[in-house]
């Protein structure tokens, strides 16, 4: 009583509403909520059109899409795959799923995306390909990366998990390499809670991924439409990586909202930029002129003398969600790597994510910036700016 509680400002919030609910209701009525049914097929067609690719395979998440991509590309034990280091480590995990070795490439200090020169330096006799990441929504340097992988006969996979709506030299993220993987996890620009897709211009690769996403047999929905009793045979040890038609229907609606939702995220980013431009204790995100950001997250790089944990504690005490940014993959104990990626390690130490989603109001953005400024000046070692 008498204590005024402040409204919480979450780090992440999906934009799901009545249109998505209506789409789910339609799937309920259709009688086919499982995967590879009418909604799944319609979503795949929508994705293929949007990205100008021959095939889109709807799957349960982006980790599954990466796994299927590497299986279809024939990656196997003894192979090395070069992966971007500064990221949620799904690419390195996928390399390990197929028994191969991830080799970690350091990133650009300004964008956090993989440095093509670091990739070039790591190519060796066992290298079979590269997984580049559109770091938190920022596309990597695909002209340089495609030239490099073409020159050495390697594959290039674009992990565009965070990058729906972003562009690189006028082309959409998700169509910047011969194979790309998307995520529709709840934190991404569009979402069905969990979900993913594999996009490719190679029909054989898509067919392989689709088959293995369904235990190694074709679509059960398709089989059920045939008059007679065809008994499908298992031709691969596949997985159950299918996206449900419930999720697919939600995504069909969300796909029509990409630009609307991204415009709202852009406004938030611009507002933060304006409010924090003169703050010497943080470096704001840099977006090179030849690309646009999907703003999956808004990351600030703190001055080395700022106590990041104390800032996070203070923001959360004021009801403001925040996070550490992302991971320096090579430092994760599971990989037992002896490599060094100093730029990635430095970003992982100094980045902080502040609220970024399409539901933020200008007043909330102002409250975040103001609370952050106060926290910065109370938790910085003397001598810093
Ligand atoms: C770059 C990147 N790749 C892959 C993933 C995994 O996505 P999903 O949760 O859809 O498997 C993530 C998750 O955040 C990610 O950031």
TrEMBL record:
Pfam families assigned: DegT_DnrJ_EryC1
CDD domains, alphabetized: AHBA_syn
Protein keywords: Pyridoxal phosphate
Superkingdom: Bacteria
SUPFAM superfamilies cross-referenced by the UniProt entry: PLP-dependent transferases (SSF53383)
Modified-residue entries (N6-(pyridoxal phosphate)lysine), positions: 188
GO terms for biological process, alphabetical: polysaccharide biosynthetic process
InterPro entries assigned to the protein according to its UniProt record, in alphabetical order: DegT/StrS_aminotransferase, PyrdxlP-dep_Trfase, PyrdxlP-dep_Trfase_major, PyrdxlP-dep_Trfase_small
Active site (catalytic residues): 188 (proton acceptor)
Family: Belongs to the DegT/DnrJ/EryC1 family.
Protein name (database record): dTDP-4-amino-4,6-dideoxygalactose transaminase
Provenance organism: Micromonospora rifamycinica
């Amino acid at each position: 009583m008498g204590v005024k509680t402040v409204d919480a400002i979450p780090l992440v919030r999906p934009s799901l509403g009545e249109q998505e609910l209506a789409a789910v209701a339609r799937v309920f009525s259709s009688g086919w909520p499982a995967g590879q049914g009418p909604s799944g097929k319609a979503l795949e067609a929508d994705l293929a059109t949007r990205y100008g690719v021959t095939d889109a395979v709807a799957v349960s998440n982006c980790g599954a899409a990466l796994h299927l991509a590497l299986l279809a590309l024939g990656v196997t034990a003894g192979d090395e795959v070069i992966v971007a280091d500064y990221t949620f480590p799904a690419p390195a995990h996928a390399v390990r799923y197929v028994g191969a070795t991830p080799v970690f490439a350091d990133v650009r200090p300004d964008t956090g995306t993989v440095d093509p020169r670091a990739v070039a330096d790591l190519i060796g006799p066992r290298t079979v390909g590269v997984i580049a990441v559109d770091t938190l929504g920022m596309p990597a340097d695909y002209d340089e990366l495609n030239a490099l992988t073409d020159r050495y006969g390697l594959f290039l996979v674009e992990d565009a998990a965070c990058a729906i709506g972003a562009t690189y030299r006028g082309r959409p993220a998700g169509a910047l390499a011969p194979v790309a993987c998307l995520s529709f996890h709840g934190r991404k620009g569009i979402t069905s809670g969990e979900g993913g897709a594999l996009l490719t211009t190679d029909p054989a690769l898509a067919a392989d991924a689709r088959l293995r996403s369904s235990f190694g047999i074709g679509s059960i929905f398709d089989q059920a439409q045939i008059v007679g009793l065809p008994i499908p045979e298992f031709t691969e040890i596949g997985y159950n990586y299918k996206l449900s038609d419930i999720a697919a229907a939600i995504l069909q609606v969300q796909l029509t909202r990409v630009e609307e939702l991204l415009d709202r995220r852009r406004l938030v980013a611009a507002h933060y930029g304006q409010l924090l431009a003169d703050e010497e204790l943080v470096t704001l995100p840099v977006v090179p002129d030849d690309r646009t950001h999907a703003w999956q997250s808004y990351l600030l790089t703190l001055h080395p003398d700022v106590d990041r944990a104390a800032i996070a504690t203070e923001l959360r005490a004021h009801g403001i969600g925040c996070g550490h940014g992302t991971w320096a993959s090579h430092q994760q104990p599971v990989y037992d790597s002896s490599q060094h990626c100093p730029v990635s390690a430095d970003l992982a130490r100094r980045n902080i994510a502040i609220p970024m989603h399409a539901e933020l109001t200008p007043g909330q953005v102002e409250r975040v910036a103001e609370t952050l400024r106060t926290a910065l000046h109370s938790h910085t070692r003397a001598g810093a700016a």
